[in-house]
Amino acid sequence: MMNTFLRHLAKITLAGSIALGVATIAHAEDKIVRIGFQKYGTLILLKTKGQLEEKLKPQGYTVEWTEFPAGPQLLEALNVGSIDFGTTGEAPPIFAQAAGAPLVYVGYEPPAPEAEAILVPQDSPLKTVADLKGKKVALNKGSNVHYLLVKALEKAGLAYTDIEVNFLPPADARAAFEKQAVDAWVIWEPFLAAAEAATGARQLANGSGVVDNHEFYLASRDFLDAHPGVVDTIVASLGEVDTWINANRGDVADQFSPALGIPADVLEVAVERRKYGVKPITPEVVAAQQKIADVFHDLGLIPAAIRIADAVKKPQS
């Protein structure tokens, strides 16, 4: 009888130990902050400086960084739970929200309309956006430049259907552009400045007078709900880096360059075309995003109408 009792007690103890181990692993995983970044913006400097890790370490958190070629790919990772936080331009969160991604807008950078443009080869006969009629134009589907193209065409009196759109990520688009397999390329910084420097490409138009080109910071809803203080720490740290950038413009390109593998003189151009100073989402910014979402819905680019306000972080009470 005693042996049976001891065997039963051992099973209970083993089960409890396994459960505790699983709980411990789960708790440890909860302490990992997974951040997605791209080859631009404040997030990559935050990664380089390491100050977020310093702030979160006393709370037991570690930070994992993953690079993405563009915003749509980054938000797909957020949608499937591979990352918790990231940054994109205006269009990607609209496409992602329309696809049901559980994202939340938690901050934005000032408008930077000159940081995206429609490029053509140096020797191209195309001189204006109106000349794009019937031409092949490359862009990353669902990226911030998608809206630039729509509005630039509209301003030039063309419909979106008047051109042939080729959806290509930046690296493939650059290759197609250099081979002149496409007539134009709609792209953002720092790819924009890099292409201009390397190929002598010309701008048909940039976002000035056409689009705002905001940069947004987004978190997964589950992560924000479970770790609101961590999200606040990330945004506050981004604000500190933005303040440093504005006070040290001459040093920014040198710090970006090793992380990006792009020459500092090229990055100086890209940095000057952007504005820095993260802020909470405002009703005006929500309205601007809603306008973009409505345009995409009208064009059939997203399957259903969405409400941007449903995906905005609520003010703390």
Automatic annotation (TrEMBL):
Domain Solute-binding protein family 3/N-terminal as annotated: residue spans: 32-252
Species, as recorded: Mesorhizobium prunaredense
SMART domains for the chain: PBPb
Taxonomic lineage from the root: Bacteria, Pseudomonadati, Pseudomonadota, Alphaproteobacteria, Hyphomicrobiales
Superkingdom of the source species: Bacteria
Pfam families per record: NMT1_2 (PF13379)
Keyword Signal: yes
Purpose: Part of a binding-protein-dependent transport system for aliphatic sulfonates. Putative binding protein.
The protein's name in its UniProt record: Putative aliphatic sulfonates-binding protein
SUPFAM superfamilies on file: Periplasmic binding protein-like II (SSF53850)
Secretion signal, residue range per the UniProt entry: 1-28
Listed GO MF terms: ATPase-coupled transmembrane transporter activity
UniProt entry keywords in alphabetical sequence: Signal, Transport
CDD domains in alphabetical order: PBP2_SsuA
Gene3D superfamilies tied to this protein: Periplasmic binding protein-like II
PANTHER family the record matches: ALIPHATIC SULFONATES-BINDING PROTEIN-RELATED
An example Gene Ontology CC term for this record: membrane
Record-stated family: Belongs to the bacterial solute-binding protein SsuA/TauA family.
